[in-house]
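User: Just a sanity check before I run the rest of the batch. Below are the C-alpha cells for the first item. I only need the designed sequence back.
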C-alpha cells in the first residue's frame, strides 16, 4: 500500500479576507515572513501552506495567522485554482469572483450543471466532493457520472482520506485542505507522482458504483482491453453493472438488494473493512465437507474476502424462497485443478466462510495466488434463493478474464 498522509484529515484550504471584504490572492505583508503562528512546522499542511503563500495564490491574515481550519467558499477555491494554474483572466462586470469563474468555465473546471452561476451558489462553502470535481478536471479527468469525481480524484492521489477509509464527500473544505490539493494539482500537471490513499480510493469506488474490488484486488479482475473497449467502456471498472444490484423475482414475491460488494485484503491488518467479518480468529472456511470444522481463515492471510453487504427487502412466500435475510450470490472463475486437495483441506480455490454455521456470513475467501480459471468467465452474480423455474440470476460482473 502506498503511504498516506497521517493527519490529512480533510484536504482543503480557504482564503483570506482583506479590508473592505474583498478576497485577495496576493500575499499580504505578513506572507513575506517566515511563518504563521497557527501553522507550526509540525502541522500536516505546513509545507503546502509555505509553497502556496510563496506562489502568491493565497495569503495569511494581518494578525500573523493563516487560519488553516477556516472554511472556503466555492468562489474562493476556484479563484485559488485559477491563480495557481496561471489561467488567463479578463476584467468583467459583476462580483469580484466573476473573472475567475469565467476563466474556470473556459478551462473546463466549472460547468453550469454543477450548481447555479449565482451569488447565492458561489458564496456557499465548498464541499469535498465539489473540490474533488474541480481537482480531477484540472488534471484532465472526465466523466458524465457525478458520483465518480471523488473516485477519480482519490485514485489520482489528489485527495486523501479524513480518516481510515473515510472520505467525507459532504464535508466542508478548509484553507489547509485547499492548498494541499492545489499543490497536488500542480505536482500532477508537472508530471510528478502522487501517493494515493488506497483506503480512501476504495471507499470512493464504493460511493461511485457499489464495489471496491477494482481498487483492492485489481490483479484478480483482469480481462483483455478489447472486451471493455468494444462495449464502449473507458476502463474495466465500468464493466461492473450497478443497475443489477437489486433483484426481484419474476412473480414479484421476493426482492433483495446488494448495498455493496466489499473486498477485504486479509494481508492488511489495518484494512478498515475487516470489522465486517467479526472475530477473524474464529472465522472458518468451508471445503463443502461438514465433517471438517477446523479450517480457519486466520491460517490463510494471503487472501482476499468478498463481503456481500445487503439485505432481503421482502419475502412474501418463504415456502418458495428460502428466508436468509441477506443477498444470495455466486462468484465463479477462481477454481483449482486439484479438487481432491481442496476437499482434503487445502485452500486452493474460492470458498464460503462462516462464523458458527454455514451461510451465517455473506462472504467468500479467495487465495491471492494458485487459483485457475477453467472454461468459464470471471462472473459475479446474485440470484433468487429458489430452484427450478423460480431461480433467476443477475450479472454484476462478467469478464472473459485471462484463460
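Assistant: Here's the designed sequence for the first item:
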Amino acid at each position: 500500500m502506498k503511504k498516506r498522509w497521517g493527519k490529512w484529515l480533510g484536504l482543503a484550504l480557504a482564503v483570506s479576507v482583506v479590508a473592505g471584504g474583498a478576497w485577495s490572492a496576493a500575499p499580504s505583508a505578513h506572507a513575506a515572513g517566515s511563518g504563521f503562528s497557527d501553522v507550526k512546522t509540525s502541522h500536516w499542511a505546513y509545507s503546502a501552506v509555505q509553497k502556496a503563500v510563496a506562489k502568491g495564490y493565497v495569503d495569511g491574515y494581518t494578525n500573523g495567522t493563516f487560519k488553516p481550519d477556516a472554511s472556503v467558499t466555492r468562489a474562493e477555491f476556484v479563484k485559488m485554482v485559477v491563480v495557481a494554474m496561471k489561467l488567463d483572466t479578463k476584467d468583467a462586470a459583476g462580483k469580484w469572483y466573476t473573472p475567475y469563474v469565467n476563466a474556470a468555465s473556459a478551462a473546463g473546471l466549472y460547468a453550469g450543471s454543477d450548481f447555479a452561476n449565482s451569488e447565492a451558489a458561489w458564496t456557499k462553502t465548498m464541499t469535498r466532493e465539489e473540490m474533488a470535481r474541480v481537482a480531477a478536471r484540472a488534471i484532465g479527468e472526465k466523466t458524465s457520472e457525478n458520483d465518480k469525481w471523488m473516485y477519480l480524484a482519490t485514485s489520482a492521489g489528489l485527495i486523501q482520506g479524513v480518516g481510515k477509509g473515510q472520505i467525507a464527500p459532504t464535508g466542508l473544505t478548509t484553507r489547509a485542505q485547499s492548498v494541499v490539493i492545489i499543490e497536488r494539482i500542480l505536482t500532477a500537471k508537472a508530471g510528478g507522482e502522487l501517493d494515493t490513499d488506497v483506503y480512501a480510493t476504495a471507499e470512493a469506488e464504493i460511493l461511485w458504483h457499489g464495489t471496491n474490488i477494482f481498487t483492492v484486488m485489481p490483479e484478480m479482475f483482469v480481462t483483455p482491453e478489447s472486451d471493455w473497449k468494444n462495449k464502449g467502456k473507458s476502463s474495466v471498472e465500468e464493466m461492473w453493472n450497478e443497475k443489477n444490484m437489486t433483484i426481484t423475482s419474476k412473480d414479484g414475491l421476493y426482492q433483495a438488494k446488494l448495498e455493496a460488494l466489499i473486498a477485504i485484503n486479509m494481508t492488511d491488518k489495518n484494512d478498515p473493512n475487516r470489522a465486517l467479518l467479526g472475530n477473524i480468529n474464529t472465522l472458518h472456511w468451508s471445503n463443502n465437507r461438514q465433517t471438517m470444522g477446523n479450517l480457519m481463515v486466520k491460517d490463510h492471510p494471503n487472501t482476499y474476502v468478498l463481503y456481500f453487504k445487503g439485505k432481503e427487502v421482502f419475502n412474501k412466500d418463504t415456502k418458495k424462497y428460502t428466508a436468509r435475510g441477506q443477498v444470495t450470490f455466486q462468484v465463479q472463475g477462481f477454481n483449482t485443478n486439484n479438487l481432491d486437495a481442496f476437499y482434503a483441506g487445502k485452500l486452493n480455490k474460492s470458498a464460503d466462510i462462516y462464523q458458527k454455521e454455514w451461510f451465517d456470513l455473506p462472504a467468500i475467501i479467495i487465495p491471492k495466488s494458485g487459483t485457475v480459471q477453467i472454461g468459464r468467465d470471471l462472473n459475479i452474480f446474485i440470484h433468487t434463493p429458489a430452484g427450478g423455474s423460480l431461480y433467476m440470476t443477475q450479472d454484476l460482473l462478467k469478464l472473459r478474464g485471462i484463460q
